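Private note to self, pasted from the team thread so I don't lose it. Backbone tokens:
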């Protein structure tokens, strides 16, 4: 049945609130954010809605696995990896509580918005904000070394596996200075972090290689952040990282936007090879998650999580996923949008 077609490993969406948010304009359907700034113990997996109507629209384009992450706060909480064809969160869970997220402060404050950017000023509270993070982690590290406990501190429990290397620390940072500060700070505790966002990572590739840091590059479909930069810089950044030998994966912000993951990699393929672009949304994410022994490539002994595509999955002009399998189980590729299309097509075809 797949003769003359393309077979791909399932795409992996990193850093997404898929299954936590349903309708952006309806607050009651948004469940990604916990109350308060320090929630290193908050588990996203138990809030994951396997019945979300958004999930099938993402699956249709080959995204079969996702890292579900928490939303706001300095320490938003714990991420988990799910497979996208499940009855409930227990059924969906593929790697539970695999990482904890930290939002690193920015050394600069930008005013305005994307259409009318304002001035950029130095964040005067930058060092104080880092000090607050350090105090929290220093106390968590001391807690982790304790052999007897009178009572549990749940926030510190969330960080405990990070110190032993059993849980990833994902640090969201964009500016070159913030990335460097975050990496050096994490290393002072014996932690090798993963940098998420990484807008300016192309500036410090030698630093990233020297410290063997992986990055999750977000949002390459955007305008440059600074007026003096090449208009195509966001599109070229993946190739700059690849040329320097930096280990990176591509990701899309948000939840419903994950359906465009393959096309973001396709844009990067203008400067990368198609194989490198595909790796950035399959094998590289699996390696960052520590799941490359099970997913991310088509190899003997791995889960049969894959899909069959009529054309090039990186090219929206020809990409059409015809069959998909998660752990060897064929899944339904229908979704609400396709149903509405058929309904109105049939109505006006009469």
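Design output:
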């Amino acid at each position: 049945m797949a003769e003359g077609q393309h077979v791909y490993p399932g795409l992996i969406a990193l850093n997404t609130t898929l299954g936590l948010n349903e309708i952006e304009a309806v607050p009651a359907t948004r469940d990604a954010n916990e109350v308060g700034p320090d929630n290193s113990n908050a588990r996203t997996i138990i809030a994951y809605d396997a019945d979300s109507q958004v999930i099938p629209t993402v699956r249709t384009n080959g995204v079969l696995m996702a890292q579900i992450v928490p939303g706001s706060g300095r320490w938003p909480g714990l991420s988990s990896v799910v497979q996208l064809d499940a009855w409930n969160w227990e059924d969906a869970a593929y790697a539970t509580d695999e990482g904890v997220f930290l939002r690193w402060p920015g050394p600069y404050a930008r005013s305005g918005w994307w259409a009318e950017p304002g001035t950029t000023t130095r964040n005067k509270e930058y060092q104080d904000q880092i000090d607050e993070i350090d105090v929290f982690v220093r106390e968590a590290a001391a807690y982790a070394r304790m052999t007897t406990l009178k009572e549990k501190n749940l926030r510190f429990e969330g960080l405990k596996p990070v110190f032993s290397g059993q849980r990833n620390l994902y640090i969201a940072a964009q500016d070159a200075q913030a990335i460097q500060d975050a990496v050096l700070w994490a290393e002072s505790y014996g932690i090798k972090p993963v940098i998420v966002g990484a807008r300016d990572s192309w500036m410090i590739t030698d630093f990233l290689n020297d410290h063997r840091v992986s990055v999750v590059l977000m949002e390459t479909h955007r305008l440059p952040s600074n007026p003096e930069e090449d208009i195509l810089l966001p599109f070229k950044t993946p190739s700059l990282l690849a040329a320097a030998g930096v280990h990176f994966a591509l990701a899309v912000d948000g939840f419903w936007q994950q359906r465009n993951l393959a096309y973001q990699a396709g844009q990067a393929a203008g400067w990368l090879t198609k194989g490198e672009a595909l790796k950035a949304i399959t094998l590289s994410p699996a390696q960052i998650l520590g799941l490359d022994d099970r997913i991310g490539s088509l190899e003997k002994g791995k889960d049969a999580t894959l899909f069959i595509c009529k054309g090039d999955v990186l090219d929206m002009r020809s990409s059409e996923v015809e069959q998909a399998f998660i752990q060897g189980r064929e899944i339904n590729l229908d979704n609400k949008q396709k149903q509405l299309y058929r309904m109105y097509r049939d109505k006006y075809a009469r």
